[in-house]
Amino acid sequence: MIKLGESLPDVNLHEFVEDMHEGCTQGPKSLSVREEAAGKCVVIFGLPRAFTPATSARQVLGYVEWAEAIAPAGIDEIWYVSVSDAFVMGAWGRDLRTAGKVRAMGDGSATFTRALGLEQDLSARGMGIRSLRYAMVVDDGVVKTLDVEAPGKFEVRDVSNIHATLRPE
User: Fold this and answer.
1) CB-based contact 6:26 (threshold 8 Å)
2) List of the chain residues with pLDDT < 70
3) What is the pLDDT of residue 165?
4) DSSP 3-state assignment of 134?
5) Cβ contacts of 71-77, under 8 Å, gap ≥ 24
6) Residue 80 pairs with which residues in a beta bridge?
7) Is 55 inside any structural domain?
8) How many domains does the chain have?
9) Helices 159-166 & 61-70, crossing angle to 10 degrees?
10) 4 assigned to some structural domain
11) Could you say which of 31, 70, 110, 113 would form a disulfide bridge with 131 (CB–CB 3.0 to 4.6 Å)?
């Protein structure tokens, strides 16, 4: 599992870009995690799958609601990552109206999730390899905080916990 002080892995995530150009959306864009996080302070939170009620209502929308409140603490961007493709993540982002507040990043093959060491095997339940639930603060590509949730729990990686770690003492 990735540790505090370590750099993010040199892999790509995929984001569905809604920018209309000549009547067509651009579609999925492959982004280098290291390049995208360089020079920024980013909150990244991982979710096992898209469109589940608790994940959508409690976690993603929590970050959408708190995006402006977190910004003064030095956060440049917020990403949510799921082992889903960019099309699914884009649809989920549209459904939750995350545009301009929280970026939906697809990790369809679990490359990022595995490189972090934060995968879980849900094959016995028909879901394959998925991400554990986690939240981290990354500064210039280096992990500064990391909270990993035990499977089936919702206690440590919501927006209020990240916000508390960012408040000056």
Assistant:
1) no
2) 19-26, 54, 57, 152-169
3) 67
4) strand
5) 73/163, 73/166, 73/167, 74/41, 74/166, 75/41, 75/42, 75/43, 75/137, 75/166, 76/40, 76/41, 76/42, 77/40, 77/42, 77/43, 77/103
6) 45, 104
7) yes
8) 1
9) 20
10) no
11) 113
Q: Strands 103-106 and 129-131, how do they pair?
A: unpaired
Q: Give the span between the Cα atoms of 19 and 5, in whole angstroms.
A: 35
Sole residue written with tokens 């770690």? 165
Q: Tokens 């280098």 appear where?
A: 32
Decide if 72 is inside a domain. Answer: yes
Q: Is the pTM of this model over 0.70?
A: yes
What is the 8-class DSSP label of residue 133? P
Domain span at residue 33 reads 12-166
Q: Which residue in this structure is represented by tokens 């892999």?
A: 11
Give the CATH number, domain containing residue 157: 3.40.30.10
Q: Write the burial class of residue 126 (CB in 10 Å: 0-12 exposed, 13-18 middle, 19+ buried).
A: exposed
- Reading the block at residue 8, the tokens are 């993010």
